[in-house]
Amino acid sequence: QVQLVESGGGLVQAGGSLRLSCAASGRTFSSYAMGWFRQAPGKERELVCTINWIGGRTYYADSVRGRFTISRDNAKNTVYLQMNSLKPEDTAVYYCAARRTYSDYDVRYDYWGQGTQVTVSS
């Protein structure tokens, strides 16, 4: 069982930056692949990026590639999402999620956080 708690969301102007954190409970965190998803009002949840258990492999959606960076610190049971050059269209609730095996595209995850709101003003 893995419990995930996101933090770091907030209101930022376009062009600004935010860093989201996702703290995980459980001693097996380092064995899980992690992903960040987002859901904007009226839209389906979409995959933002993923990272494998050791951090050696990552995947980014086209919409965020070059602006967002996913990383993890297994000693701290935490995964991060550094978001730079934010745009109003990045406004959404951001969720972290965990799954036992890594996949670039598969959106089926085993555990989910409660989400944190990111709002980018123009």
- Give the helix level as a range of percent: under 10%
Would you report the number of β strands? Answer: 11
How is the main sheet built?
7 strands, mixed
Low-confidence stretches: none
Can you give a write-up of this model?
With 122 residues, the chain is an all-beta fold. 0% of the residues lie in helices and 48% in strands. It has no helices and 11 strands. The chain has strands at residues 4-7, 10-13, 18-24, 33-39, 46-51, 58-60, 68-73, 78-83, 92-99, 111-112, 116-121. Strands 2, 4, 5, 6, 9, 10 and 11 form a 7-stranded mixed β-sheet that branches. It has a 4-stranded antiparallel β-sheet with strand order 1-3-8-7, with no helix packed on it. The relative contact order is 0.32. The mean pLDDT is 96.
List keywords for this structure.
single chain, 122 residues, mainly beta, 11 strands
